[in-house]
Specification:
Layout (H helix, E strand, L loop, with lengths): L6 E2 L15 E5 L3 H18 L21 E7 L5 E8 L1 H7 L8 E2 L10 E9 L6 H18 L3 E9 L5 H14 L8 E2 L18 H9 L2 E2 L4 E3 L4 E9 L5 H8 L7
Parallel strand pairs: 1-7, 6-7
Antiparallel strand pairs: 2-3, 3-4, 4-6, 5-8, 7-11, 9-11, 10-11
């Protein structure tokens, strides 16, 4: 379920119209060069396009202490070999080795502690601006589905971001509108370390949830708490949690096929 460390990042703008049909493939980065290509794509989107303040030791590369412990799922343009979409996946055992999940820098996850052995954190999701089509995100989801089946993990988790360019009013409005139907049961609640000041924001303004958040909620995910404020990205971050047992049957059929039966 990542804009910073492990965020599910909503991409701005519309996909550019195309006259030709692109061919894509998806797989895990297995060499330092393939990982670097994913990190360069992240920098292009997060820093160059969205203006995030990313500390880096190498110009043009988005990396942090979690990267060496993560699997990097990458969609490539088959005609050029360019990395055009990526997800970062942190498995439970890897999270234990690095000292925790990235989300824990933003949220207190104490109530999820008994689920950690089977909880995968996903994030740092981004797509090249010239390839923002349903095909790329579908391949990322399909690759993630195969990973979950092969690993035997039972839960997705991660942060989904909304811009705070308007001061956070839109994020407050979206949270208040989604809370009645999509708020997690109390036993799955998490707590932001840097709270969005909901009481000071106008939650009555018209605002739509970003497509990525809507997609995860449509798949069955819960919002597990009030949004956190991430100052480096100037975003409101929602912690999303999806047990595979709650996965919408339509999504299960599309991404898991006959291997996983829900119902």
């Amino acid at each position: 379920m990542d804009r910073t460390g492990n965020h599910l990042l909503e991409q701005p703008g519309e996909a550019k119209p195309r006259t030709e049909r692109r061919r894509y493939s998806v797989g895990f980065a297995r060499t330092p060069g393939e990982i670097r290509a994913a990190q360069q794509l992240r920098w292009r989107v997060f820093a160059d396009e969205l203006g995030a303040r990313l500390p880096t030791r190498v110009a043009g590369i988005d990396h942090d202490i979690f990267d060496p412990y993560c699997e990097h799922l990458v969609v490539r343009d088959d005609d050029t070999g360019e990395a055009v979409g990526t997800y970062r996946i942190l498995a439970p055992a890897a999270a234990l080795r690095v000292g925790g999940y990235y989300s824990e820098s933003e949220f207190d996850l104490t109530r999820l502690r008994l689920l950690r052995e089977r909880m995968v954190e996903i994030g740092r999701s981004c797509i090249h601006p010239e390839h923002r089509s349903g095909a790329v995100i579908a391949l990322l989801w399909a690759g993630l589905a195969r990973y979950m089946l092969s690993s035997g993990h039972a839960y997705f988790a991660g942060c989904a971001s909304m811009s705070m360019a308007d001061g956070g009013h839109a994020a407050a409005s979206v949270f208040e509108r989604l809370r009645p139907r999509h708020f997690a049961p109390v036993e799955y609640r998490v707590f932001p370390r840097s709270c969005l000041p909901l009481d000071e924001l106008d939650a009555s303004r018209p605002a739509d949830a970003p497509p990525l958040i809507r997609g995860y909620l449509g798949a069955g995910a819960w919002i597990c708490g009030e949004p956190a404020w991430h100052p480096d990205f100037n975003t409101a971050d929602f912690f999303l949690f999806l047990p595979l047992a709650r996965l919408n049957p339509r999504h299960a059929r599309h991404f898991f096929g006959e291997i996983l039966r829900v119902g």
